[in-house]
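Exercise 7 asks you to align residues with C-alpha cells for two separate proteins.
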Amino acid sequence: MSPSQSDASGYGASPALVGTLSFIIWLGLTYSPGVSLRAYLQEAAIGLIISIGIGIISVRYMRVEEPSKRMGAKGVVHLFAYFLTLVVAIIKANLQMARIVISPRLPIRPGIVRIKTSLKSSTGKLFLSNSITLTPGTLTLNVMGDEMYIHWVYVKEGTREERGKEIKGAFERHLKEVFG
C-alpha cells in the first residue's frame, strides 16, 4: 500500500495493529517476576480481551487527521526526540518549581502569555498544548487558531517571540516534523 492510500478501514490504522501494540504495552506493564505463571496468564488473557476492544473502538471512532500523511522514519525519530524532550522539560520544570516553593521569597511573576505556533494540524497543536500543560509552572488556557494563551508562574522579560520560544522549547520543532 502506498503512503497516500488508506487501509481498508479508511482511517489510516488497522485494529490488529492498535490491538497488538496495546497488548504488548499491557504485557510490559503487568509483568512481575514474582507472579506465578497461572496468574500471569490470567492477566495476559484479560489484557488480550481489552486490547482487542481497544483496537476495534479506537480505529472505529478515532480518525487519523490526515491518513494520506503517514509517518515515515524521519517522523518516528522526531516523535522519539519529542518524548525525550518532554521528559527532560518536565524534570527541569519540576526542579525549578521545587526551588520556587522552597525559597522563602517565593520568586514568582505569574502572568498570561500569548504565543504563536507554526503548527498547522490540530493534532500537533493538541500535543503542543498538552506538553506545555504537563510541564510544571505552565498551563495552556486556550488555543485559538495559531495562538495559544499560557498561564506561566514566572513570566520573564522579553518579547513575545522570545517568551514563546522558551515555552514551546523544542516541542514545536519535533511536532512540526511529525504532524506538520
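Second protein for Exercise 7:
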Amino acid sequence: MRRFAFAVVAAGASLMASMLVGWPLFAAADPPKGWQFLPFDQAWTLAQQDQRTLFVYFGRHGCPSCDKTNRESLSDPRVKAAYQANYVLTYVDSESGDRLRLPSGERITEMELGVKLKVFGTPFFYFLQPDGEPVARVPGYQSAEDFLLLDAYIKDGHFKQQTFADFKANQS
C-alpha cells in the first residue's frame, strides 16, 4: 500500500512540475491579430527617436473585455490604419513576468510596469508623449468610434485643453 501511495504522490508531483514548467506557454496574453506591436522597451526607444506618441495596450490572456475590444473595435480597419499611422504601438501583458528596461535603465517586469503606471484592470490603454508624460489613461472596453475619437483628441492636441470626457461630449 505504501508503494502505491508513493507512486501516486510521485506521479502527482511530476504532473504538477510539468504543468508549472509549461504554464508560461499557455499564459501569454492575446494581442489583437494583425497589429504590429513592439516590445515595450523597443517601442519606447522608437517613440523617443521619432518624437511620436506611444500607445500602450495593457491586456491579459482570458480577459473577456480585451477579447471584445480586439474583435469589435481593434478589428476596424479605420482604427488600425489611424493607430499604425499616428502612434508607436506596444502591447503589455499585465500578468507577465517578462522583464523590460525603462529609459532610466531600471529593469522591471511587464506586470510591475502596470503597477507603476497605476493600471488596475484590463483592457487599459495608456498614451505617453515621447518625454514620458501621460497624455491619456483610458480603462475598459472602448468602441471603434471611441478609439477614433481618442485618436483625434490626442493627434490634434485637444488633450492640452480638455479632458477626453469633455472632448467626447462636445463631439455629439
